[in-house]
UniProtKB/TrEMBL annotation:
InterPro entries: AfsA_hotdog_dom
A-factor biosynthesis hotdog domain boundaries: 27-164, 202-324
Region spans: Disordered: 176-204
Stated name of the protein: A-factor biosynthesis hotdog domain-containing protein
Length: 332
């Protein structure tokens, strides 16, 4: 899949972004400075901007992979896309602080040949366009974001996201209404909430604290598992949540897909590369209800496999995430 060449030309036609320091953490909705990757932004038009971010070479969560050769983590790119969209909405579009950005869906397409890590951190430019019509009160509630990803001058992918913007007070009221009471907080949980964590090598990890699945079972053409992350992992839970956030569910999808295309020993994990992720989120993933992930696989004409991961709590479908995975051997 090709990405429009305008991404490169736009980057070249505007003043250079500064990659000297990260932005104010509150503008990307992070608590820890170490989890901020956005460095700068420049307005390039009406609801258009370029956002700069630096990709770390070493990170306790995003760099913890068995795949070789080393590539930048697709979920790191998703997190940066999320941060860049939030930062631009505040710094460029003028969305007020105290506004929650609720992800409805996203699509990420990657050119992995350009995502290998080098000897220095990667400088990523996100050519970003915002969409959305304001209400009579001048607020944009339902918005869209499109981002071309340019890494060290090379177009490496494209991200599109749909989201809903609500004031924090509105979101709190909505959550109380949905449940009939105040929901629990991630601060109330420690370790893995339940079950037997999947051995880390079976989901492409070294550190067991980065494993988010328990009680993995294999069936005909797929796996099922319970989503039960390690709540002490600050990369996943940078601040308190009253639900399992979208990035945790996406990580669960990646791990379930990895286990699905492996042979059950972890031997094939090193050869698999994710080239695309598509997700839709229908309901909040409640902390006090069991969240189950179930996978199925589709073979694609180009030789890739698409693993579909469905997430459910009881009879309610929470999310659906599809990952495109290719096998690359011999250092490809």
């Amino acid at each position: 899949m090709s990405v429009p060449e305008r991404g490169v030309s736009e980057v070249d036609d505007h003043p250079a972004l500064s990659f000297q320091r990260t932005v104010d953490r509150s503008l990307v909705h992070r608590t820890a400075i170490a989890e901020v990757f956005v460095v700068d932004s420049i307005a390039t038009g009406d609801r258009q901007c370029e956002v700069g971010a630096q990709l770390p070479l070493t990170h306790g969560y995003y760099s913890d992979h068995l795949a070789e050769p080393a590539r930048y983590d697709p979920i790191l790119l998703l997190e940066i896309c999320r941060q860049a969209a939030i930062y631009g909405s505040h710094a460029i579009v003028g969305v007020s602080l105290g506004t929650a950005m609720i992800i409805g869906s996203f699509t990420l397409r990657l050119h992995n040949d350009g995502l290998r890590t080098g000897s220095r951190p990667g400088d990523l430019v996100l050519v970003t366009t915002y969409r959305g019509e304001p209400t009579k009160r001048g607020r944009v509630r339902n918005a869209g974001v499109s981002q071309d990803l340019v890494l060290d001058g090379t177009v490496v992918g494209r991200h599109e996201m749909k989201l809903t913007a609500l004031r924090d007070s509105e979101l709190e009221a909505l959550r109380r209404h949905q449940r009939g009471a105040t929901p629990p907080s991630t601060a109330d949980y420690q370790g893995h909430a339940s079950g037997h964590p999947v051995p880390s090598h079976l989901v492409g990890r070294r550190d067991p604290r980065n494993v988010v699945l328990t009680d993995l079972r294999r069936g005909d053409g797929g796996v099922t598992a319970t989503v039960s992350p390690y709540f002490g992992n600050n990369a996943l839970f940078d601040h308190e949540y009253d639900h399992l956030p979208a990035m945790v569910i996406t990580e669960a999808a990646r791990q379930a897909a990895t286990a699905t295309v492996d042979d059950g020993t972890g031997a094939l994990v090193r050869n698999h590369v994710i080239t695309g992720i598509t997700a839709s989120f229908e309901h909040y993933a409640e902390l006090d209800q069991k969240l189950v992930a179930s996978t199925s696989t589709r073979a694609m004409p180009d030789g890739a496999n698409t693993v579909d991961v469905a997430f459910s709590q009881g009879s309610s479908r929470v999310a659906e995430i599809s990952l495109e995975i290719v096998s690359r051997r011999g250092g490809e």
